[in-house]
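User: Before I run my own analysis I want an independent prediction to cross-check against. Here's the chain; please return only the structure tokens and, at the end, one sentence I can use as a sanity check.
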Amino acid sequence: MRHALAVILFVIGVLAIVAGVLYLTQAAHSLPSFFPGYSAHALGKHAKRGDAGVAFGVVCIIAGAAVEFLGSRRSPLH
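Assistant: Structure tokens:
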């Protein structure tokens, strides 16, 4: 069960980082139309959304690693 949770967190983290990089590198009119913030006529970029996506992705990957590697240890009392 812990391994599955770690894999899910890792996949979500990678997808969030990819979305964050897209927000940081593409203008609003160049984003895929299903992305929040897409605007056909806007020229600016969504830096706050990009920063948040990258940060969330890093946190998810760290959490997945913690679940996988630290969650498998047993307490000496058990």
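Sanity check: The chain has a mean pLDDT of 85.
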